[in-house]
Amino acid sequence: MDKNIKRGIYPGSFDPVTYGHLDIINRASSIFDELIVAVLDNKLKTPLFSVEERVNILKELTKDYDNVTIASYDGLLVDACEKMGVHVVVRGLRAVTDFEYELQMAQTNRKLADSKVDTIFFTTDIRYAYLSSSTVREVAYFGGDITEFVPGIVAEMTYKKFN
Ligand code: ADP
pLDDT tens, 31-89? Predict the structure, then answer.
């Protein structure tokens, strides 16, 4: 693996991916030579979309970026980082509520990885500051309009899940 390549990993549930996530992917992809978007396969939670579905959706939505790849992982993020040869984690910050959790995770990961993994944060674009996957799921569940929150194919697939 080429050590001079700046590689970042953007981990998350992406259940489903929103315009907020896509904005972070867009911005991070212009900073890193390679950006891996890593879908968490969390065995403790029952997601709306399977890992395969989430990976495929992300692949479709990022197909125009040469330097973005989509992967999935389970277990510890720091272990995934080691396997993929990444030292920088990308996360997004919306509000103070994100900050506490994100700070804790960033520090825990740094500790677990013996200071070999750092986290950088992108502040949310103000247009997406309120946006979360759980809100999207909830609004769709009650039949509300989610087309301003997620791309068309995601909206369609989300509504189908609740039909
Ligand atoms: P997780 O379950 O790991 O929090 P999410 O898919 O909810 O996964 O989010 C992944 C990352 O994207 C997190 O760092 C989260 O703060 C960030 N994020 C989610 N929604 C937005 C948004 N609207 N604007 C900026 N960052 C966001």
Answer: 999 999 999 999 889 999 999 999 999 999 999 999 999 999 999 999 999 999 999 99
pTM equals 0.96
49 Rama class: left (phi>0) / alpha (psi -120 to 50) / beta: beta
132 within a domain of the structure (yes/no): no
Cα separation, 145 vs 163, in Å, equals 15
Number of domains making up the chain: 1
Q: Bridge partners of 38?
A: 11, 71
Position 33 scores a pLDDT of: 97
**Residue to probe by mutation, ligand 1, list 10, 19, 21, 128, most atoms within 8 Å of CB:** 21
CA–centroid distance, residue 21 to ligand 1 (Å): 6
Q: Is residue 47 part of a domain?
A: yes
* Structure tokens, 8: 């970042």
**Phi, psi values for residue 70, rounded to 5°:** -115, 135
